[in-house]
Every structure is written in structure tokens, then in C-alpha cells.
TrEMBL record:
Main function: Catalyzes the ATP-dependent phosphorylation of 3-oxo-tetronate to 3-oxo-tetronate 4-phosphate.
Any Pfam family matching the protein: NBD_C
EC numbers, comma separated: 2.7.1.217
Domain Four-carbon acid sugar kinase nucleotide binding: 256-412
Organism (species): Falsiroseomonas oleicola
Reactions the enzyme catalyzes: 3-dehydro-D-erythronate + ATP = 3-dehydro-4-O-phospho-D-erythronate + ADP + H(+); 3-dehydro-L-erythronate + ATP = 3-dehydro-4-O-phospho-L-erythronate + ADP + H(+)
Origin superkingdom: Bacteria
Protein name: 3-oxo-tetronate kinase
Residue ranges that the Swiss-Prot or TrEMBL entry lists as coiled coil: none
Length: 419
């Protein structure tokens, strides 16, 4: 099975989100945790999950280039740099710097940038990113503890991160279809633009954009843009039909949810779960000690684990509590505290027989996957848009890694009806 599409994701939930999109569209896909140190598994698409969204730009560039080298050595015909559908990135990076480095490595001078994902309410119109009906900077993302997004104009945001010029392929062009999009991007590249933000408000737009970029060495964006990529390989005679692309081993063991995200969606999911399942909300501000928090959670869970319904353990908090914790400990230390605590809880849960685990939050997912020693994730069926079940090896458990902003309000309950 030759490798067709090589993907680099800047966090773990984003990687599974992308992998899910590819599987849903017929590509056998494996997610690899961290920069590979050995041969890659056989698959149509490989998604390398990095934890580079919030690291210093120099580290993010180095890891992303190392991942690209592994994918190219395995024969990847196209590289995809995947970031969040809310374009999470400070003015210092890391989206622009990483994309610049990948373009240089690939010998390319131009790439599109499109984080749109209409199924989850992310759309781009006239270069402005919307979350549902709200501009990004009015959606709650302006309060993100690590990457506060205070500008919805992606042309401006990306321009602050790169020395290259950034243009826009507007809605009026995108509506005309793939050929018009392709020609617009050619003109931009010939005119010296390095990037084009591409408007998209429907799945049909994303499919057309993907078709227009069939021969681009590098694509950057959210998982939505991957919707149209498998068809390109199929049209070229490189990708056979794969009706079993989402097959996973049977699920077993107890059920649990860990939540570290502070997004509005995750806070709503915790609120719903509180009325339907045993739920523990850790007070990180009152107990700013990872070891003590983990001990609290594992003591609480005794006698509550079940194979029929989950327990929910959350270290999420509303913006005012997050701000207070960051003021007390510092931004990075506050984030690391939550990650370390929930990673230790995950280890304890698996030792107690949990075989089906949902994790909410990109940083939290990265910490949990690392703590469990996961090397690869086989991608299964989707629970909600952008969130699949996966099979983690060598841990041999089922994991669902949920971006904080994704999933319906009842996600923590219904996930276990899908595996």
C-alpha cells in the first residue's frame, strides 16, 4: 500500500480530526504519535501528530520538518500541514513560520490556507473566520488560555506571522468552482503571493478547493479541506475503493471521560454529563498540585467504573477561574499542571480496567497519549464531525480524542454508544 498523503498536525486531537475525515472519504489512515523514529506503517495516508501548536516557533519548525522528512522518505506525494479550524496561533506563530519552512523544504512558493469546517460551524467569508454565527474574536476564542484569537481577519492574522504576502480567494470566486479557484491561485502565485486565504462556507466549497489544489506540494488548513483530497488520488488511479477503512477491533473494558479543555463546547458537555453520569470537577485553583489532584480523582472513582456508562473527570474551568490560576502560577505552569494531573489519572484509569476513554482538549490529549505510551492510532468511525474512535497501540484501548470546541452537548454520553 503506497503512501499517498503525508500529514503533519500541530496537536493530537487535530490529527485524529484530520484522520477521521480521510477515513470517511475512503483512505486507510494511521496516526503516528510524534516524529517517527522507525519505518512508518502501511497506509494510504499517515498523520503525524505533534504537540507543536504552542511550543516556541523554532521547536515547532524543527519537529515539523523532521516529520516532513519521514513522510517524504516513505513516498508521500503531497504534504498537508493541519492546524485548528479556529486558526489557533499567536502573532508570533506557529502557523506562518511552520508553513514557511515546509514551503522552502518542498521547493514551493505558494500554498492555500483554509481552516473552514462547516459541519462544526467554522466558515470563512471575505477572509473572516466565523464560529457559528459569531466572528472568531467574539466566539469565546478571544479568551483561550494559550492562543487567544482577537482578530477574525485571517489575511491579517497570517500576514503578521510571515514575511510573505497573503491574498484572498473570495467567496465570489469559490462559488464558481474548482477551475476558477485554481486560476485565482495561479494568478496569486505568479503575482508574488505566498499564501491565499480561501473562503469556504459549505462542504461543496471545500471539495472544490481540494480539487483545485490537486497538484500543490503543500496544503495547509483544517480537516475540512481534506474532504476533497482522496478523490484526487482516486481520479489519478492511485487509490482503490476501501469500504473497510474504518474497521477497528471490538471494544472492551470500562468507560471514562477526561476533560481538560476550557472551551464553551466542552463546558457545556460537562454540564450535560453532570445530570446523567458520575461527574467529578477538580478544583485546580484550590489544589494546584498535579499529584494531589490525580490522587483525588482516583480515590473518587473507586466503585464507580462501569462497562455500561462512563465516569467523567474534568479539570476544565470558565475563563475567570483560568485567569486566576494563570495569575497565580503563570500561563505555562497552569497548563502543565492540568496536563500532568489528567495524564496521571489516565494511567490510573487504564490500570483499573478502563478500555474506552474519551479525552477532551488538544493539550490534554497530547499529555494522555504520551503518558499511556501510545505509538500509533488506527482510525475508526466518526462519533460527531471531526471526532472518531481510534484504537491505540500498543496500549490496546479505544481512545476518542476530542478537540475542545467539537462535539454535540451530549457527546460524553453518546460516544460510548458508537463503539
Amino acid at each position: 500500500m503506497p503512501l499517498l498523503l503525508g500529514c503533519i498536525a500541530d496537536d493530537f486531537t487535530g490529527a485524529t480530526d484530520l484522520a477521521s475525515m480521510l477515513v470517511k472519504n475512503g483512505m486507510a489512515t494511521v496516526q503516528v504519535i510524534g516524529v517517527p523514529t522507525g519505518p512508518l506503517p502501511e497506509a494510504d495516508a499517515i498523520v503525524i501528530a505533534l504537540k507543536s501548536r504552542t511550543t516556541p516557533a523554532r521547536e515547532a519548525i524543527a519537529e515539523s520538518l523532521a516529520a516532513a522528512e519521514a513522510l517524504l522518505a516513505a513516498g508521500a506525494k503531497q504534504i498537508f500541514f493541519k492546524y485548528c479550524s479556529t486558526f489557533d496561533s499567536t502573532d508570533a506563530g506557529n502557523i506562518g513560520p511552520v508553513a514557511d519552512a515546509l514551503l522552502k523544504r518542498l521547493g514551493a512558493g505558494f500554498a492555500l490556507a483554509c481552516p473552514a469546517f462547516p459541519a462544526n460551524g467554522r466558515s470563512i467569508y471575505q477572509g473572516h473566520l466565523f464560529a457559528g454565527a459569531h466572528l472568531l474574536n467574539e466566539s469565546g476564542m478571544e479568551n483561550h488560555p494559550l492562543t487567544p484569537m482577537k482578530d477574525a481577519n485571517l489575511v491579517r492574522v497570517l500576514s503578521r506571522q510571515t514575511e510573505g504576502a497573503v491574498g484572498l480567494v473570495p467567496f465570489s470566486v469559490v462559488e464558481q468552482g474548482s477551475q476558477a479557484i485554481r486560476q485565482a491561485m495561479i494568478r496569486m502565485a505568479e503575482g508574488g503571493r505566498r499564501y491565499a486565504i480561501v473562503d469556504a462556507v459549505t462542504d461543496g466549497h471545500l471539495v472544490a478547493i481540494g480539487e483545485a489544489a490537486a497538484h500543490h506540494p503543500l496544503i495547509t488548513g483544517g480537516s475540512g479541506i481534506a474532504m476533497g483530497l482522496p478523490a484526487n488520488f482516486r481520479a489519478a488511479g492511485l487509490l482503490p475503493e476501501r469500504p473497510d477503512a474504518a474497521a477497528l477491533p471490538p471494544a472492551k473494558g470500562m468507560c471514562a471521560v477526561l476533560a481538560g479543555s476550557c472551551s464553551r463546547a466542552t463546558l457545556g458537555q460537562i454540564g450535560f454529563a453532570r445530570d446523567h453520569a458520575p461527574t467529578l470537577e477538580l478544583d485546580v485553583l484550590a489544589t494546584p498540585d498535579a499529584k494531589a489532584l490525580a490522587a483525588q480523582a482516583l480515590d473518587w472513582v473507586e466503585g464507580k467504573l462501569s462497562a455500561d456508562h462512563p465516569v467523567v473527570i474534568a479539570a476544565s474551568a470558565p475563563p475567570e477561574k483560568v485567569a486566576a490560576l494563570q495569575a497565580k502560577l503563570g500561563r505555562d505552569a497552569a497548563g502543565a499542571l492540568v496536563e500532568h494531573a489528567l495524564a496521571a489519572v489516565a494511567q490510573g484509569l487504564v490500570a483499573r480496567g478502563v478500555g474506552r476513554l474519551v479525552v477532551a482538549g488538544g493539550e490534554t490529549s497530547g499529555a494522555v497519549v504520551s503518558a499511556l505510551g501510545v505509538a500509533t492510532l488506527r482510525i475508526g468511525a466518526e462519533i460527531d464531525p471531526g471526532v472518531p474512535w481510534t484504537y491505540a497501540e500498543p496500549a490496546n484501548i479505544h481512545l476518542a480524542l476530542k478537540s475542545g470546541n467539537f462535539g454535540a452537548r451530549d457527546f460524553f454520553l453518546k460516544a460510548f454508544a458508537h463503539v
